[in-house]
Design a protein that fits this description.
InterPro entries: Isoprenoid_synthase_dom_sf, Polyprenyl_synt, Polyprenyl_synt_CS. One of its GO terms (biological process) is mycotoxin biosynthetic process. With about 450 residues, the protein is mainly α. The chain has a domain at about 175-450: Farnesyl Diphosphate Synthase (Orthogonal Bundle), CATH 1.10.600. It contains 19 helices and two strands. It has a two-stranded antiparallel ribbon. A hairpin with a 2-residue loop joins β1 and β2 (about 225).
């Protein structure tokens, strides 16, 4: 009885195994023959479980006889060749069966959301799609590679000139075009040349504003976001430089070698002035008024002077207007410095007291700092490059206490009066000063409370 109990225990343990495990072969009555191959149960149930009612001894090759069984075998014996064929088939597909069992749960959770690819109908072009032929490097042996001779597409032009076009579309004061018309009553330049000169000066002015806004880290220009905050700094700088040379190409239409020399000379002056302005700001160096006026004469006065010099090169009149336009350039910039710190209009278009945020040494700021060099409050505010409204109001109040705004107004008034007298001298009594005087009237400063 003890061997039978042990056999039953082993049988019960075996039944807990997976149905996929191979059944244990049953020894035959003839010990001299090899054991029979395992039988395949079509029902999928374990053959051990089916025969567990009969105690089976696993001590094969012992002398103990097997218990008597019925004449009908419980399992059908499979021919050896058939058994081997089925075994090979099972082995070759066991990997796929394991993968399917492993992922059956995860696939079932997505069946309602993702259709089976096997059920989808392929599109008509899928079976006939062919990869494109590989590029032939030999085509470069004969193809035209001189792309600069081909027409520049308008779509690409919009990319390169995008920042310039954006700023050009914003309405400005068009002051330089008015200046050209006012001076042409004396110089009498043909309209065709005036159109070219006006266009060149406008292009250079707008391009220089693009660069100024980048270098000054400005946020607004004419009440709207600056170009580099829309197109990016790199593209904006490239666009401005591109327009410089487009302006030079435009100038070549005049077919006058003098104009090319004037163009180069004044752009050199412009960048010299801009370089000094940036140097003072970045090193926190307060210039003298004389240094400041020299910088303005190069930077702001450069484009004013460029237009008038180009007109004189295209004019038959010997009238020299350079001194007058230099004065107007100084007046324009000093007035702009004053308005930047006091005008509500400027605050709306460029931001309140933007020169303080930029850390710029403008004309009123230079006067205020030099009025009391021992007081470091204003220069330290410039160092901070603040956006704080209260700090800016404090700085403006301090400049009022040093008389800097009043002093600036007086300087502008003196320069405007000097420019009027010079315009009358150039006119020589011909009565052609109306345009010049009208511009000077606009440049006069009014009280800060009404601006």
């Amino acid at each position: 009885m003890l061997p039978a109990k042990s056999t039953s225990s082993a049988s019960s343990k075996t039944t807990n195994k997976s149905p996929a495990s191979a059944p244990t072969p049953v020894p035959t009555n003839n010990p001299s023959l090899p054991p029979s191959p395992p039988s395949i149960n079509p029902s999928g149930k374990s053959s051990i479980r089916q025969s567990s009612a009969v105690p089976v001894s696993f001590s094969a090759h012992t002398s103990a006889p097997l218990p008597a069984t019925s004449s009908k075998a419980p399992l059908r014996t499979i021919i050896e060749a058939d058994w081997l064929a089925r075994a090979n088939y099972t082995s070759s597909n066991s990997g796929n069966h394991t993968y399917s069992q492993k992922h059956s749960h995860s696939h079932s959770s997505h069946q309602s959301r993702r259709p089976s690819l096997a059920n989808q109908t392929t599109t008509s072009f899928t079976p006939t799609m062919q990869p494109p032929p590989p590029p032939d490097p030999e085509r470069y042996a004969t193809s035209d590679l001189n792309y600069t001779n081909k027409t520049w597409p308008a779509a690409k032009e919009r990319v390169v000139a995008g920042p310039f076009d954006y700023l050009s579309a914003l309405p400005g004061k068009d002051f330089r075009a008015q200046l050209i018309q006012a001076f042409n009553v004396w110089l009498e330049v043909p309209q065709e040349s005036i159109d070219v000169i006006t266009n060149v000066v406008g292009m250079l002015h707008t391009a220089s504003l693009l660069i100024d806004d980048v270098e000054d880290s400005s946020s607004l220009r004419r009440g709207l976001p600056v170009a580099h905050n829309i197109f990016g700094i790199a593209q904006t700088i490239n666009s401005a430089n591109y327009i410089y040379f487009c302006a030079l190409q435009e100038l070549q239409r005049l077919k006058n070698p003098k104009t090319i020399s004037i163009f180069a000379e004044e752009l050199v002056h412009l960048h010299r002035g801009q370089g000094m302005d940036l140097h003072w700001r970045d090193t926190l160096t307060c210039p003298t008024e004389e240094d400041y006026l020299e910088m303005v004469g190069n930077k702001t006065g450069g484009l004013f002077r460029l237009g008038i010099k180009l007109m004189q090169a295209e004019s038959r009149s010997p009238t020299d207007c350079v001194e007058l336009v230099n004065l107007m350039g100084l007046i324009f910039q000093i007035r702009d410095d004053y308005m930047n710190l006091s005008s509500k209009e400027y605050s709306e278009n460029k931001g309140m007291c933007e020169d303080l945020t930029e850390g710029k040494f403008s004309f009123p700021i230079i006067h205020s700092i030099r009025a009391d060099p021992s007081n470091l409050q204003l220069i330290n505010i410039l160092r901070q490059k603040t956006n704080d409204i209260e700090v800016k109001r404090f700085a403006v109040s301090y400049m009022e206490s040093t008389g800097s705004f009043e002093y600036t107004k007086q300087v502008v008034a003196v320069l405007v009066d000097r420019a009027r007298k010079l315009a009358d001298k150039i006119d020589e009594g011909r009565g052609l000063t109306k345009g010049a005087h009208a511009i000077l009237d606009k440049m006069a400063l009014v009280d800060r409370t009404t601006s």
